[in-house]
Amino acid sequence: MAELDPMTITAIMFVSMLGLMAIGAPLAWALMISGMGSAYLMFGAGGLDLLLASAYETMDNFLLVALPLFIFMGLVLERSGITDDLFEMIHKLVGGLPGGLGVGTVLICAIIAAMAGVSGAATVSLGIIALPAMLKRSYDKRLVTGTIMAGGALGFLIPPSVLMIIYAFLSRDSVGKLFAAGLMPGLMLAGIYIAYILIRCRLNPELGPPTPKAERANGIEKLKSLRHLIGPGLLVGVVLGGIVGGVTSPSEASAIGAAGALLIAALRRQVDLAMLSSVLQTTAKLMGMLIWIAIAAVFFSKIYVGLGAGMMVQDLIDDYSLSPHAVIIAMLVSYFLLGMFLDDFAIIFITVPLYVPVVRELGFDTVWFAVLFILSMQSAYLTPPFGYNLFYMRSVAPKEVTIVDIYMSALPFVALQILGLALVVIFPGIALWLPSLLF
Hints:
Elements: H1 6-22, H2 27-43, H3 49-59, H4 66-79, H5 82-94, H6 100-116, H7 120-136, H8 141-152, H9 162-171, H10 175-203, H11 219-225, H12 230-244, H13 250-267, H14 273-306, H15 309-319, H16 324-338, H17 344-361, H18 366-380, H19 388-396, H20 403-426, H21 429-438
Helix pairs in contact: 1-2, 2-14, 3-14, 4-13, 4-14, 5-6, 6-7, 6-8, 6-10, 6-12, 7-8, 7-19, 8-19, 8-20, 9-17, 10-18, 10-20, 10-21, 12-13, 14-17, 16-18, 17-18, 18-20
């Protein structure tokens, strides 16, 4: 096998990995088995030493301490019931506008994203709370489900994002810079969603009728409802402000965030042994999965890089006279296609170690590329047939919302996400302005 050209070895490695996944092997074992087989065939028994080196390299990174704590924080907040209060607040503030509850749903998703750092938290909680409430008020079911799924995906981009922490671990970029880079594109995308909802409901008010006048809150009630922002606002401000301002490391901020989430849940009288046991078990399961995938992916990428992957990619660029931007677009297309079949963790562990060196060689900012990657993952979570938010929504949607409705509702928002991606590609300053200002 060592005598084969890199392209053939690439095909063997990836086909074997995908074949193992197709027969039901977990991603970590598919990567491990494919990598070990390739290492042995190319380098002999000594090649397996790379597995030990990969395990040490993966675990010897203090940044990983932030992951379980941010996951724990998100799970605690999800179970604290804070989403109910936020939806009640939004109903009072903007329910009187055509499409106002849809606009509010996007805002709540952005707030939850800034507290939880994962996509599923907002999608599931708002699917349970906001979806029935809006359907009861005669909102169009496809507009509603699409709004919740797209808003839930903001958890990838608006910091603190678990996916960004993993990207920083693999690319050796600053977590603070990545968080700062994701903030403006995340707010921009939320603004695009809000504009789309308002325009559609202005043109056709039946899609999102305003709340009847009898149910609308007066000025005093609106002011009182803002108290529900105090806890989330303080938590987000302390966690993000500490990281971006350089006061705390990501690991320290994650510990503060976890403690703050527990405090919020305790004040809401939602903390008990059953809840803590469930949250801790789920956190441990997720971290166990992530660590095994990380070790296997680092090992797999070391083998792949060792056979000359960088030279192979450079030769392809030279042979086809590809411009640097054409290479970036090809990478983004590959993310879009992979997202139809693999989850975000699989994609990031497989591709980032391979793509980031090429991005650096082409002279692009890897922080900018991180935002492009995250935006691509947002689209992947809404893209049939295996978009995760589609299945999250299916698990909580009432019977009148069919799987066809869920798939169709996602398509306009995928188009909006691609628009946001294109804007960041064309105008890198959207992502890079805030990091350049703060760092």
